């Protein structure tokens, strides 16, 4: 990226991550991969640097390719001094006025919801009826999986997200259903709304495909049992 491009606010041209990008065999490792990918992409998105440029800007070695490791989902960065240089990459990025906006993706509630040791108590703040977004509420607790219009002869219109954070309530609902042994209850809602979430949030758009693969592999393995399809 030239100085002119960077000064004009142009963003690096990155394609979205492929569905098979992550190779970790366990859920915790898969989430760490997603955390690293989301954080690294957010760094590039907010700063305007390329992966190479960000590596050189924020790491002690000018030959470092560290951002590529995270973009490819190999792991997530760890806070604190690390490696032979005793360097805190997260803190260095966080000191940048634009880079600091990426830090929230390391601790985003989305990752907590799907951690293997997440409890019902941790999900509770997203499942109180008074906090569920009104346009989504009718799809919660009533086993109403197919949009009502699709069953009455009308046009098939499903729920809509207003902001990306509304997606967290849907994910928490699905996670709780999985804990209760009803993974199909909520999966189609997540599947239907995930593309909307990706359209609302560019960082999630980057990890959208491997995120959905994680859900299917670790939380919903019986896709063939679906009898009713969401409108496409």
Question: Layout of SSEs?
Answer:
Blueprint: H1 3-7, H2 27-47, H3 51-58, H4 66-71, H5 89-95, H6 109-114, H7 120-123, H8 134-137, H9 148-151, H10 166-179, H11 184-200, H12 202-218
3D structure, described in words:
49% of the residues lie in helices and 0% in strands. It is mainly α. The radius of gyration is 19 Å and the shape is elongated.
List descriptors.
12 helices, 232 residues, 49% helix, disordered C terminus, disordered N terminus
User: Which structural category fits the helices and strands?
Assistant: mainly alpha
How do the helices and strands follow one another from N- to C-terminus?
HHHHHHHHHHHH
Q: Quick check: average pLDDT?
A: 82
Give helix % range.
Answer: 40-55%
Query: Got a strand count?
Result: 0
Radius of gyration based on Cα positions: 19 Å
Shape: elongated
> What's the helix count?
12
Q: Strand fraction band?
A: under 5%
| Low-pLDDT segments | 1-12, 148-154, 224-232
Ends: how far apart? 38 Å
| Biggest sheet layout | none
């Amino acid at each position: 990226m030239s100085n002119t491009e960077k000064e004009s606010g142009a963003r690096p041209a990155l394609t979205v991550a492929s569905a098979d990008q992550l190779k970790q065999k366990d859920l915790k490792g898969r989430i760490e991969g997603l955390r690293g990918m989301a954080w690294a992409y957010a760094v590039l998105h907010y700063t305007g640097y390329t992966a190479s440029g960000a590596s050189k800007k924020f790491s002690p070695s000018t030959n470092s390719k560290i951002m590529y490791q995270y973009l490819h989902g190999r792991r997530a960065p760890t806070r604190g001094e690390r490696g032979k240089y005793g360097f805190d990459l997260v803190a260095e990025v966080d000191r940048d006025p634009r880079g600091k906006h990426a830090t929230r993706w390391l601790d985003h509630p989305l990752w907590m919801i799907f951690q293997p040791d997440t409890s019902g108590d941790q999900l509770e703040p997203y499942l109180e009826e008074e906090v569920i977004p009104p346009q989504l509420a009718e799809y919660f607790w009533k086993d109403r999986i197919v949009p009502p219009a699709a069953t009455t002869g009308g046009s098939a219109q499903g729920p809509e997200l207003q902001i990306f954070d509304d997606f967290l309530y849907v994910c928490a609902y699905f996670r709780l259903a999985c804990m209760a042994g009803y993974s199909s209850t909520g999966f189609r809602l997540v599947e239907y709304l995930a593309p909307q979430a990706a359209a609302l949030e560019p960082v999630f758009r980057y990890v959208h495909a491997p995120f959905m693969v994680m859900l299917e592999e670790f939380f919903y393995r019986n896709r063939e049992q679906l009898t009713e399809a969401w409108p496409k």
